[in-house]
Predict the 3D structure of the following.
Amino acid sequence: MASITIDGAGPRTGAAEPRRRRPGARLRRRNTLIGWSFILPNFVGFALLTLVPVLALFYISFTNWDVFGKAKWLGLANFRRLLHDASFHTALWNTVYYSVVHIPLTLVISLALAMLLNRKLRGVAFFRTAAFFPYITSVVAITTVWNLLFSPKYGPINDVLRFVGIDNPPGWTTSTTWAMPAVIIVGTWREMGYYMILFLAGLQTVPRELYEAARMDGANAWQRFRNVTMPCLRPTTFFVTVMLTIGSFKVFDIILLMTNGGPGQATLVLSQFIYKAGFVNYQFGYASAASIALFLICIVVTIVQFVVNKRRAA
Amino acid sequence: MTLVHGTPETRALTSASAAARRPDRQTPGRRAARIIGYVVLIVAAAAVLLPFFWMLSSSVRGSNDVFTIPVKWLPPSWKWDNYVHVWSQTAMVTWWKNTMLLSVVVTFLQVLTGSFAAYGFARMRFPGRDVLFLVYVGTIAVPWQSYMIPQFILFSKLHLSNTLWSIILLQAFGAFGVFLMKQYFESVPEELSEAARIDGLSEYGIYRRIMLPLSTPAIASLTLLTFVNTWNDYLGPLIYLRSPNLWTIQLGLQTFINNLYDQNYALLFAGLTLSVLPIAVIFMLGQRYFVEGIATSGLKG
């Protein structure tokens, strides 16, 4: 493929400069070969392990592929079944619930933390480390500790809540209404440090002179935030929002480990629906159809965010 | 306050020592803001670290002292032998070995192939390069959960399921490493490579002798991030590793939790602490790079 492109490009340069034609073409071919040789080791793995499965997903979702690898073409049957599957609706709704609360909450908290830590305070390095630590701690350790902290009768959280005068503290992961908030709290707690670092990097690119100028013009702290910080942070905010959105729609491990989708289906999310259909019921075809839904949601939301960002930048 | 209205000499002194940074001047309002800032930070840090503190403190208690009413934040008695027990009563040694092996191999492959490919994307010009890079970046928006089913089928066909190879292949060729390294390589001045090229160094030589040594922060952060990711991964091992002798520390501990009939939570906390320990050590060692690397990956979006 590469050589064809070069042959096509070669004569055109040759027409302009006949004497340098051959060395130029040879140089390009050499560059292409060397370039590919750099990319190839990673690309082979990447193509085989990521691209091939993504493409295969579309085929498998139209079949009833099972654990023995037998597959019959079903057309749209899997998708029709999804439309009428109450569990799928619940999973979709819960995923949206998680995302709609988790995204703005994490955005605000991580930005606030970054603003707080973007000053010359004693011990700032320690605070940055502390905020980042949950993100790199194993999810098994995190969920176990939080589950025990949340335990309704003997857990320290409800103990503290009773101490401050709340007689009937929530049942957290054992209650259908409070399980999702509990998961969101842990999700936010875990990820805020990561996004805080991104915001910190963004804040450091804001020119100090702009703040000085705004202060000269009599802008108060809120006005400086609205009219200096936010516009300068727009690229970072965009990146953080995109990453947060994808992260929220694919949320899985903390839910699997904290509530396993329960109680009932109170915290069943899309990824877990896929996991259950595939690795518990061994309906790979049906699980793939649900995967397509997750795939499309992430791609479409990302593209919309890109378009909105472009329009705002223009 | 006196300093501000002081003699020219003292003013010059203060402005020199404070690097002439006017907004940092200590007015009562600023001082109050500073104190409030500290209070908020301390409360936030406590909220973030409290679960870890509780984990540590519970790991050295007697089995009946973990849940008490009211909560005791410090252990009533110190039982260090919980750590010995969890080490001898579980297959912790096997889990540690497996996890360490996976993390080291995955990290090595990811850093090597990732930085190699990144050089191709950052410094070589050839047709199709930009489209290919777009495909790489595009897959960052595709969650693994959406293609884990076909990937599992593929790995099963290749008889890789239930081997450690599955996890190595799963983690070692991520697009993220290529992306991070490319961002960093592009910040290295092109003139350096040009000079080396004129001196007769090949592209591979430039990669090895110039780009790699100049990219220590990016390599360090990619190393740390990949290591931590592999060490902490739960879903990959959950799907692929079924034989107990292949289990990683995360999988092993979760099974230990699910089978915790004797309710010895103190032992569990000791196990959890042991699983977090290497990550904590690595993080403390490379904290600076970590933060820098993550910031680099996010700068341009």
User: Anything to note?
Assistant: The radius of gyration of chain B is 26 Å. The mean pLDDT of chain B is 79. Chain B touches chain A through 98 residues (CB under 8 Å). Chain B is about 70% helix and 0% strand.
